[in-house]
């Protein structure tokens, strides 16, 4: 708050008026005030609106002799997934405690996997299949952005917000803090290691630092000049491959790959603009691969040249590994593998030229809610952090739906359309609520659509408002930049104007429209990685017609301990006063005089609250002002200035058309029933169940994957007291705590649920039956197959199928011998097989559709005894039609006279011995020479 000097008499008059205003607002007697006459029920979970597979990167290793991929699905909590690549099968998952995302993994030389999750490190053993929580790497650092291991198993990581590098020693289990790499920078965004040197890629302004982890000495590797780049952006990726350091620059409108020759100490001349992804591939046969302009390129490390592989790829590599698929002839040798954001596995075989994708097998996780707002159709729209989906909840049907959407920082409405302000790159997208979601580019009416990117160094559109036929956005600039923008978009002409630095070096986090003017408010913060230059937030008035700023002012807020660094939540009341929020205070400004005429300190002592996310103010149909001031749901009566605190922490809420409050906490949305106080409650609550999968995903009404269920209850009257569920149809009840629950065990389950409200009204129980069979039938051999079998023997396929739950499907049995289908109804003669190793495979399913595969390996061998028995067998078959010849051949074998045996067979071939029989006899005899 600022006090301006003025002549004493004039100052006295104004001071008297101000004190009178304070008295009328804050010092009224209790008798003069009326309490907020509303009843607010208990919060009711309405589920996780966005559940998806969201993956940043991957790592590759081996378990039990098989190639596996390690990847993490972001969520609350983030989940480590171990995937068998040859079978494209999810082997196991592990929650990462205290982490909702992971940007980095590395596999040490001994096969141990290290994972970064937020500020913590985790370790997974491929031998024990166990995950260890190693704890926080460096106190005070909030996230780890890169990991790499050296030849001794030490692991190095880079952090934010102090751009530090650390080491984890697996022998001592201790972390070493090497300190900040570049003063004034926030990120070690990438990290690499080679020949005793750690390379740290810095942001927001690009640097590469060489660190000696033994001495702790640091030196900078100067980055070559890049045409068209005035300021080096993030060094977003670093990889050492052979003698080369590959550096990926991202920011300031540039994505470029630079290559440094470590042996010669020079940067290569070429700059590869349009680089995509997070890294280049590991080296194979003197080449590494990367994506440029949506094409896979090969860099020859000897010739130092790049060639096009001819394979197109619409996204970028998210870490890669070389993997063998021995049973897939179209993927000979080694195949390059990477993961996609949505969980699909992409394969690139440069020998055959094949590029294909495998279906996602990772399990989706609930996504952290980033934005929430009511749409023009009454649905509650949400956005997820680092999400590719948005969510829409219908309060009438109480159903969720999703649509393609990036991370929206703000959601607003104009007409029948919902507008989303997307991070990164300040993109604006539109969803038409009158049209179905349609993402096929070959069909008409795509929905949603991308309208434009703001550019001008803008990154996060955090607020929206409408007026005069236009939509206005307030933004936060890019990393390392100051100066947000006011952006005016005209839907009729599809044109927009960007006005940056409306308030010098500040971001816009509050907007409201009235009578041809835009009223705005700011945060002193810019993008991450730069300190603010201003000390106090501002309010401003903008002429929507001329596109010019009319005024800028600092509101004098009575009782404020200091000038706020963020003012937000702008909204007009029915009397034309402009309400706003700062720290723990709500206040109203007269737009004509720009003076604060009403205020209420609700949360005393709060200062410097907020960075970008605005405080939200919403008017109810009841005339009350609802807000998440100081991150807590609060209701204010603007006439009496009475307020009510609901004791619920949230930074995102809205009011539904039903008058109820909808708010977000982490991954879940909740509903607070709002009703007039004193209403009688004679109605029981209503409980609804949400299942994932929604329907049985196997055959014959069986589930073949884990079932996740959530219960959501609502009560219009006294509010919800409890929700309960039972596995024995109501004999014993368990209190439901709002968390998703899983049904993992096979069996025929009966799930019963109900709710009870605070007035004692009890809902009639509901029961659903869930049949779960996650395992294929057991294939039981009645007699073991020996490791070695003679050529004269038969293979008897004596086995049975057992399945405890859905039952075995006997019609599904398929048997192959060396990948060729065979009849399982009789014994199999083996003499027609070549000598050596063979594989018998049995496949069968149960009635739920689960498949079991059993393989038996044996070696077909010959011996003198086996050859003699083969002679007699061929005689029985009539392939040797002379008993004397058969007896003579058997005698020669018994005496070990193989040459004479072969001579006699050849002499009788086509006469008394069939050509087929002769071939088998000579083959075995020659093997016994």
Automatic annotation (TrEMBL):
SUPFAM superfamilies: Calcium-dependent phosphotriesterase (SSF63829), NHL repeat (SSF101898)
Keyword vocabulary terms for this entry: Signal
InterPro entries to which the protein is assigned, alphabetical: Ig-like_OmpL47-like, Vgb, WD40/YVTN_repeat-like_dom_sf
Endpoints of the signal sequence: 1-29
Top-level lineage group: Bacteria
Protein name, per record: Streptogramin lyase
Lineage: Bacteria, Bacillati, Bacillota, Bacilli, Bacillales
């Amino acid at each position: 708050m600022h006090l301006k000097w003025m002549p004493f008499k004039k100052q006295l008059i104004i001071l008297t008026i101000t004190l009178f205003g304070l008295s009328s607002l804050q010092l009224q007697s209790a008798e003069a005030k009326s309490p907020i006459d509303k009843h607010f029920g208990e919060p009711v979970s309405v589920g996780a609106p966005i559940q998806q597979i969201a993956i940043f990167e991957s790592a590759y290793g081996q378990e039990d002799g098989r190639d596996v991929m390690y990847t993490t699905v972001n969520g609350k909590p983030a989940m480590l997934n171990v995937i068998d690549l040859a079978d494209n099968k999810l082997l196991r998952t592990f929650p990462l405690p205290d982490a909702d995302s992971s940007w980095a993994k590395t596999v040490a030389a001994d096969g141990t996997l290290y994972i970064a999750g937020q500020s913590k490190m985790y370790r997974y053993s491929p031998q024990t299949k166990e995950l260890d929580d190693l704890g926080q790497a460096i106190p005070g650092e909030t996230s780890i952005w890169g990991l790499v291991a050296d030849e001794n198993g030490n692991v190095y990581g880079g952090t934010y917000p102090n751009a530090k590098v650390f080491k984890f020693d697996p022998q001592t289990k201790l972390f070493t803090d090497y300190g900040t790499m570049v003063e004034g920078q926030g990120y070690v965004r990438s990290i690499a290691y080679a020949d005793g040197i750690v390379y740290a890629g810095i942001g927001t302004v690009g640097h590469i630092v060489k660190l000696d982890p033994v001495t702790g000495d640091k030196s900078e590797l100067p980055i070559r000049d890049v045409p068209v780049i005035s300021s080096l952006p993030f060094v977003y990726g670093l990889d050492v491959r052979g003698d080369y350091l590959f550096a990926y620059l991202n920011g300031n409108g540039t994505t470029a790959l630079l290559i440094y020759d470590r042996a010669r100490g020079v940067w290569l001349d070429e700059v590869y603009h349009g680089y995509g992804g997070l890294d280049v591939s590991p080296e194979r046969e003197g080449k590494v691969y990367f994506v440029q302009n949506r094409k896979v390129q090969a860099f020859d490390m000897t010739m130092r040249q790049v060639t096009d592989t001819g394979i197109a790829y619409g996204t970028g590599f998210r870490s890669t590994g070389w993997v063998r698929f021995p049973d897939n002839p179209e993927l000979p040798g080694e195949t390059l593998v990477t993961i996609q954001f949505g969980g699909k596995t992409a394969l690139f075989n440069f020998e055959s030229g094949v590029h294909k994708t495998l279906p996602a097998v990772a399990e989706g996780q609930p996504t952290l809610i980033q934005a929430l707002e009511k749409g023009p159709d009454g649905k509650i729209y949400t956005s997820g952090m680092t999400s590719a989906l948005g969510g829409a909840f219908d309060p009438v049907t109480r159903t969720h739906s999703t649509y393609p959407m990036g991370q929206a920082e703000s959601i607003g409405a104009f007409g029948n359309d919902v507008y989303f302000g997307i991070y990164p790159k300040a993109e604006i997208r539109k969803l038409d609520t009158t049209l179905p979601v349609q993402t096929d580019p070959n069909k008409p009416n795509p929905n949603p659509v991308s309208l434009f990117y703001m550019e001008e160094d803008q990154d996060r559109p955090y607020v929206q408002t409408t007026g005069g036929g236009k939509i206005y956005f307030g933004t936060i600039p890019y990393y390392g930049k100051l100066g947000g923008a006011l952006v005016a978009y005209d839907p009729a002409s599809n044109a927009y104007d960007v006005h940056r630095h409306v308030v010098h070096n500040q971001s816009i986090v509050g907007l409201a429209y009235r009578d041809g003017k835009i009223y705005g408010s700011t945060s002193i913060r810019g993008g991450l990685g730069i300190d603010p230059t201003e000390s106090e937030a501002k309010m401003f008035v903008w002429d929507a017609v001329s596109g010019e700023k009319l005024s800028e002012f600092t509101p004098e807020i009575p009782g404020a301990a200091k000038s706020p660094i963020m003012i937000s939540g702008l909204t007009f009341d029915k009397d034309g006063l402009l309400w706003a929020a700062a720290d723990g205070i709500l206040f109203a400004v007269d737009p004509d005089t720009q003076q604060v005429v009403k205020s209420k300190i609700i949360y005393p002592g709060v200062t410097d609250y907020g960075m970008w996310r605005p405080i939200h103010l919403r008017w109810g149909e009841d005339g009350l002002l609802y807000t998440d001031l100081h991150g807590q749901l609060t209701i204010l009566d603007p006439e009496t200035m009475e307020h009510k605190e609901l004791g619920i922490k949230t930074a995102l809420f809205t009011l539904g058309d039903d008058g109820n409050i909808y708010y977000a906490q982490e991954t879940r949305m909740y509903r607070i029933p709002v009703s007039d106080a004193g209403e009688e409650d004679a109605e029981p609550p209503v409980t609804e169940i949400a299942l994932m999968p929604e329907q049985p995903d196997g055959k014959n009404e069986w589930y073949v994957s884990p079932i996740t269920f959530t219960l959501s209850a609502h009560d219009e009257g006294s509010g919800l007291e409890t929700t309960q569920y039972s596995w024995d149809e109501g004999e014993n009840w368990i209190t439901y705590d709002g968390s998703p629950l899983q049904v993992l065990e096979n069996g025929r389950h009966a799930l019963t649920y109900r709710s009870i409200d605070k007035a004692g009204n009890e809902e009639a129980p509901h029961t659903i039956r869930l049949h779960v069979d996650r395992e294929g039938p057991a294939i039981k051999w009645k007699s073991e197959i020996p490791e070695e079998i003679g050529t004269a023997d038969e293979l008897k396929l004596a086995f049975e199928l057992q399945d405890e739950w859905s039952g075995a499907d006997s019609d599904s049995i398929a048997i192959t011998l060396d990948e060729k289908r065979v009849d399982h109804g009789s014994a199999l003669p083996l003499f027609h097989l070549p000598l050596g190793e063979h594989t018998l495979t049995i496949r069968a399913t149960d009635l739920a559709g689960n498949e079991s595969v059993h393989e038996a390996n044996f070696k077909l061998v010959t011996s003198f005894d086996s050859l003699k028995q083969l002679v007699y067998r061929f005689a029985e078959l009539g392939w040797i039609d002379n008993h004397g010849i058969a007896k003579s051949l058997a005698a020669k074998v018994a005496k070990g006279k193989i040459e004479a045996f072969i001579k006699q067979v050849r002499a009788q071939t086509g006469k008394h011995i069939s050509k087929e029989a002769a071939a088998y006899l000579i083959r075995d005899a020659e093997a016994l020479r």
